[in-house]
Amino acid sequence: MPVVNLTDRIERAIVARESLFDERHQAGLRLFNGFLEGEPQIVIDLYATTAVVHNYADPPKAGEALVEQVLEWLPTRLPWLEAILVKTRHSDDETAQNGVLRYGTNLATRIREHGVWYALDLTMNRDASLYLDTRNLRQWILANLADKTVLNTFAYTGSLGVAAVAAGAKRVVQTDRNRRFLNVAKTSHTLNGFPIHKPDFQTDDFWLHMNKFKRKGELFDCVIVDPPMFAATDHGVVDLAQNYTKVLNRVRPLMEHNGTIIAINNALFLSGQEYLELLAKICADGYVEVAEYLDIAEDFTGYPETRVGKPVTNPAPFNHSTKIAVLKTRRRGF
C-alpha cells in the first residue's frame, strides 16, 4: 500500500532545502531522505535538472506504487525537471539497478558545486557517479589543499581529486581499479579547463598500488581514503567494519611530515563510537592524531522540521553514517 502522505513529506523536504536550489538548476543535493524523513523505501537525489529516485523496497514491487506517486507529482512541483531516473536497488536486473528513464529525455551530464563542475554518468552503475554526501568535504578540500601534493585512493569518479585540483594543489594523483570511473574524472577536468596529466590517473589494485608508491619513495601532503564498504581481491580485503585500520596503515608510509589523511568510513552499521575506537588504534603510537570531524550537510541528515526517523546506529560524534575524520600525521625522526 502506498503511503498516502508521501508527497506531503517530500514537499516538506523540498521547502526545507529551498536555499540549496540555484536559479540555473545546476546544483546537486539529496532532495528527500526517506530513511530519516518518513518513507524508508524511497530516496530522491537531484542532479541539476534530473531527479534520481531510488527504490529501496524489497521486494522491489512493494515500492512501485510509491515511485508512481513521485513520477506523477514531482514534475508538477519542479516544472523545470527534464528527466526522472528510477534506480531499483534490489532488482535482479542490472539495468533496473543502474537506472531506467521514466520521465523526460535529457539526463543531466554535470553539476556545479562551489564553482566547480563535476561530470556525471548517472546510469554507469547503481550509484549515480557522484557522491553528494561528501559536498562539505569537497568544500574543505577547496579551502585547505592549495599547493599540496594529493593522493586520492579509491577515487571512483574522482570528485575529491577534482576539488583538490580546483583548490590549486601542486599535484593530484587519482587511483582506482576501474578505468571507466577515472575517465569521468578526466571529463570533469575538461569541463573546468584543467589540464589532463595522464600519468596522474592510475588504475591498479589498492594493495599493490600503495606498495609501489612506497618502493618508489613517493610522499604526499594529503592522502584521501574513501574505500567501498567491502571489496576483496587476490591481494587484500577491504572491510570498513573489520579491517579499516589496515587500510589506513597502508597509506601512512606515503605521508609527508605534518601530512593529512582524510579518513572516510560510510559503514552503516558501524557507530560513531566504534569508528573512534578504530581511529584510536591508528593514533596509539603518537604519530597520528584526529584533528577534526567534518559534518555531512543537512539534506542528507534531514532537518529538524522534516526528520521523523533515527539512524540505524548512533553516528555521534559524527552526524551521519558517512563519518569523515581529518587526521594529522608526522614522520618518525622529525
Automatic annotation (TrEMBL):
Gene3D superfamilies: RNA methyltransferase domain (HRMD) like (3.30.750.80), Vaccinia Virus protein VP39 (3.40.50.150). InterPro entries: SAM-dep_methyl-trfase (IPR019614), SAM-dependent_MTases_sf (IPR029063). The keyword Methyltransferase applies. GO terms for biological process: methylation. Residues 106-278 form the S-adenosylmethionine-dependent methyltransferase domain. Keywords: Methyltransferase, S-adenosyl-L-methionine, Transferase. GO terms for molecular function: methyltransferase activity. It holds the Pfam family Methyltrans_SAM. The keyword Cytoplasm does not apply. This is Ribosomal RNA large subunit methyltransferase I. It comes from Herpetosiphon gulosus. The lineage of its organism: Bacteria, Bacillati, Chloroflexota, Chloroflexia, Herpetosiphonales.
